[in-house]
Amino acid sequence: MCGIVGYIGKADAPTVLMNGLRRLEYRGYDSAGIAILDDERVLIAKAPGKVSKLNERAHADWPSSLFQRASTGIAHTRWATHGPPTEVNAHPHLDQSGEIALVHNGIIENYRSIRARLEAKGHHFYSETDTEVLTHLIGDCDKGDLFQAVCDALHQVEGTFGIAVISAREPDKIITARRGSPIVIGVGEGETILASDASAIVAYTQRVIYLDDNDIAIITKDSIDIRDLNNIPVTREIAELAFDAAAAEKGGFDHFMLKEIHEQPESLGNAIRGRLDFNLGSSVLAGMGTSPRDLAELSRIVLVGCGTSLHAGMVGEYAFEDLADVHAEVQQAAEFRYRNPILGSRDMVVAISQSGETADTLAAVREANQKGAFVMSLCNVVGSTIARETGRGVYLHAGPEISVASTKAFTCQVVVLLMMALRLGRGRRFSRDEGIRFAREIESIPMLVAKVVAQNARIAEVAADYAKNEHAFFIGRGPMFPVALEGALKLKEVSYIHAEGYHAAELKHGPIALLEQGTPIIALAVDIPGKDKMLGNIEECRARGARILGVITEGDHETAECMDDFISIPRCHPLVATIPAVVALQLFAYHVARLRGCEIDQPRNLAKSVTVE
């Protein structure tokens, strides 16, 4: 959600920090701020709105010579939680003395009681934020050692944090710490940069250190000293980033979302490469850390996720039951730990998260571990918290996803779940020949998606007929039901059209009352079992004046005649068809949003990585 950048070194710190904030804009935010150290002073510039406004404010308030000499600072993009997105609520915040500045991701849950205690001691607060309270608490604890003051303060707080702290009294260092909100430190030559996301770092160094929960680090331009909150040294390995700065640029496309949709043949190829065994008719997913005996003894698979990842899990549920003959269920990660789930050692919990930092999914992982289940993850971000805490799982290799609306991460989640189901299926019910046939189906997915992406211009023409609507319904059956949910989610995320996804059989149980002349129905009518029932549902909608846009199987002329408009996908296995079908809906949502003039990559009120519950 919020973004953090910190820098200490030999370069122009304000410029480095501004560039870092720009690379974090995709995460979603509504205000921004920067603090730098200059001549034993802390100077701050803040502004509601975009980073460009902050940049204008800083250049208006600070002399150009300051940009050349300031070499230490911290910066932040804020997604409002405590208090509206105003300048006074924007980070960084200062302590009572005005000599300590802090930026913070997360939520301090007991900030009210701390604030009351500090007010009784004479502290005065200007903002409505929990972050200003934490800043004052650090200042109150400071007895001449900033590191110890931060430790003492963090021992008193409840909640989550990723923080960076600077002090005019100790200008040669930055203190950073994390609990439940990511911090990554970039290791340079005579400079160190920290951030909440590696995309802010990649232009400066490929060598990074990921902090674990309750790590606290003293950062200088030449050193990184990591300890725990009890001041005990800990060791964290240096990792190499798996992408470069060019991967985080638009590459000639108008929007990151469109670029990432077009990248899907490549990203799916990367997710599949080296993971299919055509000799055994199975898949090779070493990160699962399981033997065939382990898999054969599983009694249940529980898939947990939120939003788009939840929809991917729903496709996985169909795949595990159809291919592997194992009971599977999908649970909303936000509810998982609050409903006292029944789990045992023969249950496998699969945590699905693009960022690997989703707070609700991380909480589900910890609950599943506590209950003794076999826990693994599907993540896109190497070194993310969920990936590290599960210790086993499968990386998506989708590459950086900058647009808030997930596209290539979702399709890679689904293809990895299909490969997992294939592996389980070969150990339980699939013959070698059946396994080989399904492995070939998976292998063909990048080509199938490329055929859909090649229809971009036609889908844009179709979208023009729907861009003025304010409501839309997506319907599907079987594995196309979660595709309908995901298609509706994409449309509402980027176009702000009220869109709902339904199982087609549910239309007559209420939603059909909302249909009137011209109401858009986007129907997933591809060749899968139950398509005849789907066509019946479509006729029910047509009888009430709805306008039908079908996603159909290529060459299915009979079904095309039932539609007002249609988009074709290549003929393939019903489970595999979920991927090209959802890509068609991604392009549809993109073009509708473009025609409506929406801010596609950074939809209002949304954030890329949801790191608070």
Protein model, in words:
- With 613 residues, this protein is of the alpha/beta class.
- The chain has 3 domains: 3-241, Glutamine Phosphoribosylpyrophosphate, subunit 1, domain 1 (4-Layer Sandwich); 256-443, Rossmann fold (3-Layer(aba) Sandwich); 450-613, 3-Layer(aba) Sandwich (Rossmann fold), CATH 3.40.50.
- Helix content is 36%, strand content 22%.
- The protein has 21 helices and 26 strands.
- The strands form 5 sheets. Strands 3-2-4-1-10-9-11-14 form an 8-stranded antiparallel sheet.
- Helix 8 runs parallel beside helix 14 (408-428), helix 8 runs antiparallel to helix 16 and helix 16 (445-453) packs parallel to helix 21 (578-595).
- It starts with a strand and ends in an 18-residue tail after the last helix.
Features:
single chain, 21 helices, alpha/beta, 613 residues, Rossmann fold, Glutamine Phosphoribosylpyrophosphate, subunit 1, domain 1
